[in-house]
Amino acid sequence: EEMKDYERYVIWLDYFNSELKRSEGRRVPLSSATRAPRLEELDEACKRLNLQPAPQPASFPSSAPRSSGYVSVRKVKPKQALLARIAKELAIVKAKELKKQAQRPTGQKK
User: Per-residue pLDDT tens for 13-45?
Assistant: First the structure.
């Protein structure tokens, strides 16, 4: 049985999802939220902030059917301030990802 690690925060993807209401688990303002964030993007954002993330696919407790995930990160700052920093970084990572996708050549349709 795994011991709970009190030196780390659990940061759920749902905290940053602009498609969710606060009552559904979003924890950052809509202006800072990201549309449909992916676990890889959250992991990358946390790595860029040097938080030593440990990603884990899972279902957010209040929304079992929706696939989600979380990263556990080392504890720094108050959690809400940390979420704001991660949200900002996540937006940058997401924008880069979308730019990369836009530059990929698409197959010609007949």
Answer: 999 999 999 999 999 999 999 999 999 999 999
